[in-house]
Specification:
The protein is α/β, with parallel strands linked by helices. The protein has 10 helices and 12 strands. The strands form 2 sheets. An 8-stranded mixed sheet has the order 6-7-8-3-9-10-12-11, with helices on both faces. A 4-stranded antiparallel sheet has the order 2-1-4-5.
C-alpha cells in the first residue's frame, strides 16, 4: 500500500496554558507546554517522542488527538487539517486517530464489562451494523491475545498487562490511521512490557499501523521506533533515524540522555560523557536563547540570547544547536 501523504504532519504546533494571576494587576503569564513542534510520520512507521518528564511529550500527543486545545499550528491526518474541526466533523475524524493511555486501569470505565468497553467505541463512532460490531469485538480480542471469555469480565478482574491489551483493542476498533501510544508500558512489569511491545510490533506488521510512540525509556524507544524526536522544554532539539541517534547523537542534551542510561559495559562507563546537571528552566515564559544553555557544559555566550533553529545536519538528522 502506497500512501501519497504522511499519515501525520504537524507544523509549528503550540500549546500554551494560562496561569492563574495572584492579584488583579499581575500580568498574564502562560505555560509554554509545547512551543513550535513540527514532525511527520509516514505510513507504517513509528516515530518516538522522548525527553525528561515535563518536556511536553504527552501534551503534544494530546493536542494532536484533540484532547487538549492547541494554541496555534497545524495538524494534518492523511492530509486533512484537524485542529479547526468541530462538532460532527470532529467526531467523524476521531475514528482516524486513537490513543493508548499510560495507565491501563484509570483509562477504562470500571462499570463496563470488557466486551462492552470495546464495543462502545464502535457504537459511538457508528461503525458497522449491530451484528458486525459483535463480530468485530470478537476479532479484536483475538488479535490482542484475549479470549471470548474475557469479554464478560470487568477491568478490575484483569492483570495490568491484560488491561493494556484491552486498551489496545479498544483503540484499534475504528481501524485508525494513527495510533498514539503514550508511555504504554511504563506502568507494567518488565516481563509484561516485552509482551506488550511485541504485540504492538506484530499488530503494526499485520495491520499496517502507524504509531506516534511517547516514552522516557530509551531502551523501549530503540526497540520500537524507526525515527526519534528528542524534546526539551516544549521544543524538539534533535530528530534522527534510530541508528543515527543512538550511534552518533549530536545535541548535548541527547548525549546527556544516552549517558544517563545504566550500562554493564565497563568500556562504555570509562568514556568521557556529557552529564546533565541542574533543573530545566521554567516553562512559564521561558528564557531567551537555547533552553538547554543553563545546563550545557559547552554553552557559549550567544547560546543564552540567540534561539537555535532545528536544521538538517545530515540526510536523516536534524539538530537545534549553535555549536554544530
Amino acid at each position: 500500500m502506497i500512501v501519497p501523504v504522511p499519515v501525520l504532519e504537524v507544523n509549528n504546533l503550540k500549546v500554551y496554558f494560562p496561569t492563574k494571576r495572584k492579584h488583579f494587576f499581575e500580568v498574564h503569564s502562560h505555560i509554554h507546554a509545547v512551543d513550535g513542534v513540527s514532525l511527520k510520520v509516514e505510513f507504517g512507521k513509528t516515530l518516538g517522542l522522548v525527553g525528561e518528564s515535563g518536556s511536553g511529550k504527552t501534551t503534544t500527543g494530546l493536542a494532536i488527538a484533540r484532547l487538549v486545545q492547541a494554541s496555534s499550528g497545524s495538524v494534518k491526518i492523511m492530509g486533512k487539517e484537524v485542529l479547526g474541526l468541530e462538532g460532527e466533523e470532529l467526531r467523524v475524524q476521531r475514528k482516524h486517530i486513537q490513543y493508548v493511555f499510560q495507565d491501563p486501569y484509570s483509562s477504562l470505565n470500571p462499570r463496563l464489562r470488557a466486551g462492552r468497553l470495546v464495543r462502545e467505541a464502535l457504537d459511538r463512532l457508528k461503525i458497522g451494523h449491530t451484528t458486525e460490531r459483535s463480530i468485530r469485538v470478537n476479532e479484536l480480542f483475538r488479535q490482542v491475545g484475549l479470549s471470548r471469555e474475557h469479554e464478560r469480565l470487568f477491568p478490575h478482574q484483569f492483570s495490568g498487562g491484560q488491561r493494556q491489551r484491552l486498551g489496545i483493542a479498544r483503540a484499534l476498533a475504528s481501524h485508525p490511521d494513527l495510533l498514539i501510544c503514550d508511555e504504554p508500558v511504563s506502568a507494567l512489569d518488565v516481563a509484561v512490557q516485552a509482551q506488550i511491545l511485541n504485540l504492538l510490533r506484530r499488530l503494526q506488521k499485520e495491520m499496517g499501523l502507524t504509531y506516534l510512540f511517547i516514552s522516557h525509556d530509551l531502551g523501549v524507544v530503540q526497540h520500537m521506533c524507526d525515527e526519534i524526536a528528542v524534546m526539551y522544554v516544549g521544543q524538539i532539539v534533535e530528530q534522527a533515524d534510530r541508528i543515527s541517534l543512538f550511534k552518533n547523537p549530536m545535541h548535548p542534551y541527547t548525549k546527556g540522555l544516552l549517558a544517563s542510561v545504566p550500562s554493564a559495559d565497563p568500556n562504555r562507563r570509562k568514556k568521557t560523557q556529557i552529564q546533565i546537571y541542574g533543573e530545566p528552566p521554567s516553562p512559564i515564559d521561558p528564557p531567551l536563547g537555547c533552553r538547554f544553555s543553563s545546563r550545557c557544559q559547552l554553552a557559549e555566550e550567544r547560546c543564552h540570547f540567540e534561539t537555535p533553529l532545528l536544521r538538517k545536519i545530515k540526510a536523516n538528522q536534524k539538530v537545534a544547536c549553535h555549536l554544530i
